[in-house]
Design goal:
The chain is of the alpha/beta class and 285 residues long. The chain has a single domain, classed as Alpha-Beta Barrel (TIM Barrel), CATH 3.20.20.140. Helices cover 40% and strands 12% of the residues. It has a six-stranded mixed beta sheet. The relative contact order is 0.17. The structure holds adenosine monophosphate, zinc ion and fe (iii) ion (FE) (2 copies). The site of zinc ion has 5 residues, from loops.
Amino acid sequence: MPVDLHLHSTCSDGTDSPETVVALAAAQGLTAIALTDHDTLAGIDDAAAAASSAGIGFIAGVELSLQWDLGGMHLLVYHLGQAPGPLQDRLAGLQDGRSGRNQLIVERLVALGWPITSDEVVEESGGGVVGRPHIAAVLVRMGAADSISDAFDRWLAQGRPAYVSRPRLTPAEAIILARRSGAVPVLAHPHTIGVSADEYRTAFRNLAELGLAGIEAYYSEYPEELRLHLADIATGLGLIATGGSDYHGTYKPGLSVGTGHGDLRVPDEVVDAIGAVARPEELRQ
Ligand code: AMP
Ligand code: ZN
Ligand code: FE
Ligand code: FE
């Protein structure tokens, strides 16, 4: 039975609560999920309780954006406990970095003639970690863009007029902190890192030397051949081929929990493979 190890909730930039995300997973017949909100573990307790009631497996996760000049490198970190730890202790700082960045984006948009306020953005976020999709949603409402993705294309994406970066961990910092926390670092959606397909193997090997444990091969946006190709490279390097939909509710229209655009199927063996790499709390340094 399939699983989905890349899901966002209202605790970051998804539009469904953790409980609703679990209910959608259960309705799809998934046997396990991971909640992977950006920079926060706030949804983990509610999602774990809901998953337990629904009788499906649950992995606590988080997604981090890393400092990487060639493109967007995101890291999924699985089995990250909520107790203080080397990586857990950095999450609050990453959230603070977002607040300053978001304020600067708002100021740029005002200067560009779109009278958006931080209060509106925070209200759109519903109180969780605020991300650019929330700003995008406000821009759509005020007529500055036709859709969330149009708001990124016009204003918010890297290189566009209201883009502002934020403090991020480097790949080495994040991977090492994740491992020291007993957790399992996996490279998310590798197409965004900005290397050509024939450089994937080298890029993954360099990250594996830092302690990377897996590659997100089974991703919604990929044709089946690319999923299998990435899985093949991953296993050839001794890495786990993981996968997930990157479901965000209405902020990423057209995606469903479990099935992505309809053709995604993440094999459940991945769950045990990830679990075998996680180190229980008592064994951590
Ligand atoms: P942030 O972490 O606040 O910088 O926002 C990053 C999030 O914005 C990503 O995780 C995606 O959910 C979303 N995102 C990034 N680029 C785009 C895009 N071009 N279209 C739609 N959503 C995007
Ligand atoms: Zn997101
Ligand atoms: Fe991502
Ligand atoms: Fe994501």
